User: Fold this.
Amino acid sequence: MHETTVKIRLFGDPILRKRARSVKEITQSQRDILSQMSRIMYESLGIGLAAPQVGISEAMIVVDIGSCLFKLINPKIIKKEGLMVLEEGCLSIPGVCIKVKRAKKVKILAQDEFAKPLTLEAEDLLARVFQHEIDHLRGKLIVDYASFFDKLKMAKKLEELKKSAKDERLFEQEAKSCKLQL
Ligand code: ZN
Assistant:
């Protein structure tokens, strides 16, 4: 992965719909990808990023809501509790905000970048970001949560995005229209 060629993949790119493969062996290559992902997340003012969003179909995510940076490999949600609705954006779908109903609390099993097993418990915003990024690893996007009315509203925007998937600069400004970028 060369720094200059790394770009956030946009809606319409088939890699965003693929299920990411689980990482069998964690090597320096995964650690490099995770640090590049973190850099791209911070540069894009995002609070989470999944590997498929940078064109790598491996089960890896980075999350930082302002407290600390999580780099997780093979994350799995093993427990969910409560429900909360909040508007989310996605770095891969600039300009689109969708109200998404998610668990308020989650328990997650994962590995860190040195293959050490981790158990995490998160709630509220952090739980939401983990759920959004883990969705990416299953090929699931916020548009899949849209109500019928939301779908009508964003239909045109999504068509434009698909057509201009190669010219993401067009949408850079709009990307900031939603508070949570993940
Ligand atoms: Zn996203």
User: Anything to note?
Assistant: The two ends are 21 Å apart (CA to CA).
